[in-house]
Design brief:
By secondary structure, the chain is α/β, with parallel strands linked by helices. The protein has three domains: 2-60, Probable tRNA modification gtpase trme, domain 1 (Gyrase A, domain 2, 2-Layer Sandwich); 81-141 and 323-383, tRNA modification GTPase MnmE domain 2 (Four Helix Bundle (Hemerythrin (Met), subunit A), Up-down Bundle); 147-312, P-loop containing nucleotide triphosphate hydrolases (Rossmann fold), CATH 3.40.50. It is 51% helix and 11% strand. The strands form two sheets. A six-stranded mixed sheet has the order 4-5-3-6-7-8, with helices on both faces. Helix 3 runs antiparallel to helix 4 (73-83) and helix 6 (118-140) packs antiparallel against helix 12 (326-347). The two termini are 18 Å apart. 32% of the residues are buried.
Length: 390
């Protein structure tokens, strides 16, 4: 099937061949095509050509890759919103407002005999402040957007033999980690993905934290600390069969990274009566769950707590735009820097030329998001992560 120029995905004249799906047939057809001069497409080359032909902007092109890589309904819906142009439309509206503001300032440059009246300056400053707030909200949305794109990161941590690997297997519903009664079995970390109520969740089983002279175990404990520092939620497991667990917990809480935590008081199946420590006296932000990896007691409550923590950090995609690209976040932050300098210029009564210069720099940063301004290095970086088919 032939598609004329301007109507294909890439915007170029294009032909599609439909055939039987057997691998041998496909290889024979491709070999025949390559014998006549064509070459295989590079990763993302079709979408790159679509961008260069003006069929889509750069933000929508990036959404193609996000859509293909989406693991859950959340990531799919976010990528779909960006692909149909919701983010691009919002950026275009912001850009137009900044352009209008810039035009007013530069009109004063063309007519220097007419100073900007204080009332007009106040109006422009207020408009610029509103624009800055809107851009700031988009930049801040990356905190949720990163979770949508990369997944919600949960670290299972605690002292050796607290039941971390057992919980890891329980959450995965498979025997992924080795479980043994010997402390220090886990020397390195294990990471797997689960779908928890439509959210991609990364679960990491870390090495037990304790004093150790072994090089390998110390390395595992260092990686455990690093993982906790980069997690969105820490499940800290406590073995309540240890007589010193309360005293140990008080020490541990001073060393655990300052992240959101849920305390799991494990092995309740081995204790007839449990007098749990009053957690509120240690840290009002901590929550405690009575738990047993053997009987699964408390598992439903734990799952509920995990979902609650995730939902607190997730946006409502029906009402708000969310950016999922770190590149977009950096560009928005750069734009904020220049636009804030422009406001400071107004307050200092700088010349219109200086204020205009800062605003233009801000516009350039915004334009790099949608691809009005780009260079080959940016395109190479973006499209290198695409699959060959797109």
């Amino acid at each position: 099937m032939e598609m004329p120029e301007g109507q294909s995905y890439s915007g170029q004249r294009q032909a599609e061949i439909f055939c039987h799906g057997g691998q041998y047939v496909l290889k024979r057809i491709l070999a025949e095509i390559f014998n006549h001069g064509p070459r295989p497409a590079e990763p993302g080359e079709f979408t790159r050509r679509a961008f260069l032909a003006g069929r889509i902007d750069l933000a929508r092109a990036e959404a193609v890759a996000d859509l293909i890589a989406s693991k859950t309904e959340f990531s799919y819906n976010s990528a779909k919103n960006n692909l149909i142009g919701k983010l691009s439309g919002q950026i275009e509206m912001i850009r137009n407002r900044v352009i209008e503001l810039l035009a007013e300032i530069e009109a004063n440059i063309d007519h220097p005999e007419e100073d900007i009246e204080s009332s007009d300056q106040n109006i422009m400053t207020n408009e610029l402040s509103q624009i800055i707030n809107e851009i700031g909200e988009l930049a801040d949305s990356y905190r949720s957007g990163r979770i949508i794109r990369e997944g919600f990161k949960i670290a299972i941590a605690g002292r050796p033999n607290a039941g971390k690997s057992s919980l890891f297997n329980l959450l995965l519903n498979q025997n992924r980690a080795i479980v043994a009664p010997i402390p220090g079995t886990t020397r390195d970390y294990l990471t797997e993905w689960i779908d928890l109520d439509g959210i991609a969740v990364s679960i990491t089983d870390t090495a037990g934290l304790r004093k150790s002279n072994g090089i390998i175990e110390r390395a595992g404990q260092k990686s455990a600390t690093d993982i906790m520092n980069n997690s969105d939620l820490i499940l800290w497991m406590v073995d309540i069969t240890r007589g010193s667990w309360k005293r140990d917990l008080k020490k541990d809480l001073t060393k655990i990274p300052n992240r959101v935590k849920i305390l799991l008081f494990n092995k309740i199946d081995k204790c007839e009566k449990i007098n749990l420590l009053n957690i509120g006296r240690i840290d009002d932000r901590l929550e405690g769950v009575k738990f047993s990896c053997v009987t699964k007691a408390g598992f439903r409550e734990l799952r509920k707590e995990m979902i609650s923590h995730i939902n607190c950090q997730m946006p409502d995609l029906t009402d708000a735009l969310v950016i999922t690209s770190e590149r977009h976040k950096k560009k928005f932050n750069n734009a904020l820097k220049y636009l804030k300098r422009a406001i400071a210029g107004f307050k200092r009564n700088d010349t219109p030329e200086l204020i205009s210069f800062e605003i233009r720099l801000g516009i350039n940063e915004i334009d790099e998001i949608t691809g009005r301004v780009y260079n080959e290095d940016i395109l190479d970086s973006i499209f290198s992560r695409f699959c060959i088919g797109k």
